[in-house]
Amino acid sequence: MHCLIVDDSRAMRRILRTIVQRLGYETVEAENGRIGVERLHETSDVGLALVDWNMPEMNGLEFVQAVRSEDRYQNVKLVMVTSETDPSRMVRALMSGADEFAMKPFTEQILVDKLKLIGALPDGACC
Amino acid sequence: MPVAEHDLEFLSTIVAERTGNVISSHQAYLVESRLAPVAKEAGLSDIRALVKELQRSRTSPVHDRVAEAMTINETSFFRDPSLFDAISAHVIPDLIDARQSQRSLRIWCAACSSGQEPYTLAILLRTRFPELGNWDVKITATDYSREILSKAESGSYSQFEVGRGLPAAMLVLNFDRVGMNWVVKPEIRKQIEFCELNLLTPFPFYQPFDLILLRNVLIYFDPGKKVDILTSAHRTLASDGYLFLGGGESLVSLETPFERQVLDRTVGYRPLYPSETKHD
Ligand SMILES: C[S@@+](CC[C@H](N)C(=O)[O-])C[C@H]1O[C@@H](n2cnc3c(N)ncnc32)[C@H](O)[C@@H]1O
Ligand SMILES: [Mg+2]
Hints:
The complex is a heterodimer of chains A (127) and B (280).
Chain A: E1 2-6, H1 10-22, E2 26-30, H2 33-42, E3 46-51, H3 60-68, E4 77-82, H4 87-96, E5 100-103, H5 108-117
Parallel strand pairs in A: 1-2, 1-3, 3-4, 4-5
Chain B: H1 5-19, H2 28-41, H3 47-56, H4 62-70, H5 81-98, E1 104-110, H6 116-128, E2 136-143, H7 146-154, E3 156-157, H8 159-163, H9 168-174, E4 175-178, E5 181-184, H10 186-189, E6 192-196, E7 209-214, H11 223-235, E8 237-244, E9 258-263, E10 266-271
Parallel strand pairs in B: 1-2, 1-7, 2-6, 7-8
Antiparallel strand pairs in B: 3-5, 4-5, 9-10
Helix pairs in contact in B: 1-4, 2-4
S-adenosylmethionine binds at residues 19-21, 71-75, 79, 111-113, 117, 143-145, 148, 198-200, 215-217, 220, 246 of chain B.
């Protein structure tokens, strides 16, 4: 099972990669939403995407909307990993199909708890 | 500077007297970090001086401050999700059936700490049970520590605190953004009554509760005090009510008037009657 990491910060992608690999995911990465959609098309078994909000070319909200507009991606879990905490924007992301938010700065435990909450921990993950 | 053994002993006695909490040796490290600020606030140079002050006057207000500082407030929204799953899958539906004629529900969070537990319940009820909208639902939330209770009452939480356990949809629907914090909406807040209560004193309740959460607080008491508290809780719980403890706690090896009931992935306790016969 793959986790798609969409974030324009290389440092953030590395942190997220380390955490989800430990949980048992394989990872693919993209530095903006447009490339994220491409990676999704190329990778057959993406079960989870961790998505930044502010990115060049296509932002996180547009990415969520693009993913949910395709029938075959209705079950991919989408978690916004972002410092965006404006309630009305959060509502828009949730209505567009985001499953959860993990607010930056986050701890590993918070991210793991969020994944647990939406049933996105791989079977046998160690926590 | 580590706290001297005999000072530690003295401090444990004070905390035990005031709150009934037992400071075990593995919590000794907490003494320094929690009491240094208390000493400073009281204008004392260090913990040694604090102990001297406590020994000098039995009635000094510093006694209460020490006891408060040593009680541990760890909590979070939806702490132990399986408990809240069981409450919404079984407990509330059962109570809604049983209280059709009164149309009222009384819930008590004993030892509510900074409030995440009662707010979790209030949010859960509002989200999952809209039919309770025209019922009389009241959550009573109590704690021994006045300081933590005023934080609970404010209903104001940092990004980090709401990040732990609270689903994003519940966050945006039930909280307002105020500056850097998230504040519980007034309609949620008004379902909860906060008041100070030391569990080692008589409980001031007249109406029975239908559901009592007594979670992650019994751990601090010795077995005798646990039984006292549970016996009092039994008296204030409706005969068909529910009691829940913290995830790692159980009544095993305690003589109490409760019967264990497995509810999916969690354990609840139901009152046994007559309670008197159990203690003869
Ligand atoms: C670990 S917190 C539990 C919070 C919440 N029930 C939970 O499970 O997340 C324990 C709380 O018990 C309170 N407490 C300790 N001794 C008490 C006493 N004698 N009477 C009332 N509350 C007490 C502390 O102030 C603290 O807020
Ligand atoms: Mg960014």
